[in-house]
Amino acid sequence: MKPYLSVVIPAYNEEYNLRTGVLESVYGYLDKQKYSWEILFVDDGSSDATAKIAGEFAKKHNNFFVLKEPHRGKGGTVIAGMLRAKGEIILFTDTDQATPIDQLEKILPKFNKGYDVVIGSRHGREGAPLVRKIMAYGFSLLRLLVLRLPFKDTQCGFKAFTDSASRETFKRLRLFKADGESSGASVTAGFDLEILYVARKLGYKIAEVPVDWHHKEGTKVDPIKDSIEGLKGLLSVRINALQGKYKV
Question: What domains appear along the chain, each with residue ranges and CATH number?
Answer without folding.
Answer: 5-242 (3.90.550.10)
